[in-house]
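Reopening: Cyclopentanol dehydrogenase still failing for me.
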Amino acid sequence: MSGVANGRKAIFITGAASGMGLETARLFAREGWFVGGVDVNRAGLAALEEELGAENCLIQQLDVTDRDAYAAALERFAGASGGRLDILYNNAGIGRGGPFADQPWADVLAVVKVNFIGVLTGIHLAIPLLKATPGSLCFTTSSSSATYGMPMIAVYSATKHAVKGLTEALAIELKPFGVRVADVLPALIDTPILPEGAAAAAPKTGVFRAIPPREVAETVWEAYHSDTLHWYVPRELVALDHRATLHPEQTRDEMAAGTLFATIDAQIGATAG
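Support: Ran it again with your exact input. Result attached.
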């Protein structure tokens, strides 16, 4: 079943069946937007459609690595939204961790295909719709691991660095067309991508505390009403980004020693004090 936007603003969200994508779909639906939600999770999509109401959304199963299927999904969405695409939210992602030398090659390629090729595909296909929608925003989920390459998630981290660089480049390329481009760099968000028990084991305070996914959804909303390029959740993460840029060797050594995050928290505390 599909809804019809009837002139409402419209957002297209990948990875919409759970976590940050789900919370973003809920928030924008509450604000009166028409929601296009795609995911590989059929059951989650059915639940989302029931929750939002079929008249308020177009829910489709989609593997973001399938370009032809992606093009068809966007075409159906454009038909339902009246050709509007106020926000493209590239959120779909997977995580496969472990020492790089021990990772199955299939896992390495899967992370690259979903986390980066999927983003490239979505943006490339959606640019005509974004250009045709005044004030549109192309928004992508990067990661705190795009501040500095993180061990045990090396490939995941590399894809998120790529997303951050792509965001910066396209923000310049698409600006003449009135299309804004931005990303969010979340730290530890309590979503299904985390290993079981990771959120519960996370510190209760500090930059790598577990954060509910609704905070990222609220960031997407804020980003639509702003021209900021990179969004940090929590905002204190900007301290890690600055440190990694200005002092990469020191950051490397502190991360290897397991002291980096405590150092960042102490730095933030001293600044706040």
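The domain at 10-237 is CATH 3.40.50.720 (Rossmann fold). If you still see a failure, please send the error message rather than a screenshot.
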